[in-house]
# Entry
Amino acid sequence: MSLKKVAAICCCLSLAGGLLTGCGNNQNANQEDGNSVRGTNEISGSLTIWEHDVSFEAPLEAVIEGFSQKYPEIEIDYETKDGNTYYSLLTTSIQSGEAPDLFWTNGNSTSNMKDLAANDALMDLTEIVDYSDLEESSLALGRVNGKMYSVPWMSFDTRCCYYNKEIFEKEGWQVPGTFQEFETLLEKQKAAGYIPISLSPNNTWCILFAYEPIQAAMNPEYAKGLEGYSVKATDQPAADSLNKMLEWKNKGYFGENCMGVTDGNAQILAFTTGKAVMDIAGSWDNTTITDNNPDLQLGAFQIPAEDGTKGMVGSFANGFSVYKDTPNKEAAQAFIKYCASIEAQTAWVQTLGAVSGSSKIEASSEIANEISDADVTYISWQSLLANNAKEGESATTIWEEDSPKLFSGEVTVDELLAELSKVMQ
# Structure
């Protein structure tokens, strides 16, 4: 990536909320800070941590390793849960009084953390954690009614279109420069006998992470208006993008048997085995993709708008909250404080191979730089559902339950958006 392009991206990200992706001054990951204590520490005990997806296992292990060097007397076990059942398992464990000491939530991206805070299940971290090394624009992710209940990660969770560079080179295909060129490429790939895009239409998150960049590419002005809620989540551009995905399904661009792709793991597998040429998914999946097939010549780009501009949809990632009634309070507080340190944040971002959202942390991989090659950033469409629903209503639940039904034909786009409209402010 050229220096000129990097500077342009940094400018765009600064305007969008103070983000600097993979550039700026890197600080020593081993510096002293308010969350990191050097030397022998007498705190002991045991902790259990829940993470919601195997994609985050490696960075969590890296953070635990760094923490354990400072707190060798604290034993840590972690469990990776199925994202589809994660919150139901978490709710059950809290209700039974057997919750893990620390656990992941979406933060304010969904209503789950707010509900847990309202039910007095989360420890108030406002005066416990030093947040000074984190980007100010990330903190809203962990804040409820003026109090902090989680520690965000400085990875910028965005979406992108992964592609198989070897197949592109073999077939003479170029990364598209406009949205029309992207659609033309899909037809060429199908005609050549490939599945153009790997997608699981059975998984609401797989649908969302493809839908949002498609939506931003089809209507950049609409995507821009999401941030200030000057447009509604159910306006016509939202319907147009969903209908475009259904059109692509009917044309076979997701594969003739896409309804048999059960979940995100199956979606990644179809791509890493070469059955599909592209995979529109989260930036955090790049490590899993590489682990599945180390020989894959992986590339990434943002789907361009018709005018050639490239938008990057996403937000900071949320991290862990602390169970208020943890029997291991001192150890849990030590771990959550460590999570906010530059050392832990760097380990997370770089091990994940993520796009960095902090000027203090450099991205660690070329693929992260390819993902962040964009002209503008947009917030997630789903964040409108989470933050602008009527009191006592959950638009995100409607989306999660009904978006897969679009692809099975059980509901129409208009029916889904009408249901969302009823519960939105």
